Amino acid sequence: MNNKCIAVILSAGRGKRMGGSIQKQYMDLCGKPVLFYTLKAFEESEVIDQVILVTGKDELNEVRTAIVDAYGFRKVTQIVEGGKERYDSVFHALQWIQSTQEPGEEFYLMIHDGARPFVDEGILRRLYEEVKRSKACVAGMPVKDTIKIVNENLEAEETPDRKKLWMVQTPQAFYGPLIIEAYSKMMAGAHDQVTDDAMAVELMMKHPVRMVEGSYRNIKITTPEDLLTAKAFIQEERRV
Predict the structure, then answer these.
(1) Which pLDDT tens digit goes with each residue over 150-206?
(2) Which is nearest to 52 in space by CA: 22, 95, 23?
(3) How many whole angstroms separate alpha carbon 48 and alpha carbon 61?
């Protein structure tokens, strides 16, 4: 029997690079909020049993009414208040999940950005199969461009081998007790240098994290240009 797989969807970010007064995850994307498409992928997935949605304190009721209830997302069993930084929001969700599990219960977690609306079943299945083997894996894709490491004067100092470079995406999938212990250790000390969940596992638990093929379409909507790309993806899908 497969162990339970819980998705944590992060939707508490302010999205300063997008500009405007509406948070990026609630912006209109071809008639529906960005977050709708993200939740829909997890709602329809055969590997996801439960969704924990993390949002800002001021959006808790509105998100419940205007998105979760309005679109019938039954897998969303809890909406958790986020924190100041991304890692605070993840930690709040993990604390809630830990409080609801039976002692010794085994489960898996997938942590995903609400502003990545093009995650698909193929990505979720690949992650699920890998996390059962390795306990820690992340979606990503090989970089397409040459990468330069620069100094404070914007002078190129090093050109890493492109064959070894991947751009990291979400979801990031973990054995539940592993990521909960990693975050508990991280939040107890200095953690400003941790930029994603995989890094918490790498640093705090010394546990390897495997890369799993994501998709070049699995973009995070961060800037107005990203929103234009997302609209093109939706329009293309509707023409098929």
Answers:
(1) 999 999 999 999 999 999 999 999 999 999 999 999 999 877 788 899 999 999 999
(2) 95
(3) 24
Give this prediction's pTM. 0.93
- Phi and psi for 153 in degrees, rounded to 5? -95, 10
- Asked whether the beta carbons of 214 and 140 are under 8 A apart, the reply is yes
The span from the CA of 214 to the CA of 171, in Å, is: 9
| 3-class SS of residue 75 | coil
Distance CA(95)–CA(99), nearest Å, equals 6
19-47 burial by CB neighbour count: b if 16+ within 10 A, else e? eeeebbbbbebeeebbbbbbbebbbebeb
pLDDT-derived band at 21 (thresholds 50, 70, 90) equals low
Identify whether the C-beta of residue 166 lies closer than 8 Å to the C-beta of residue 140.
yes
Distance CA 138, CA 174 (A): 9
> Tell me, what amino acid is at 46?
E
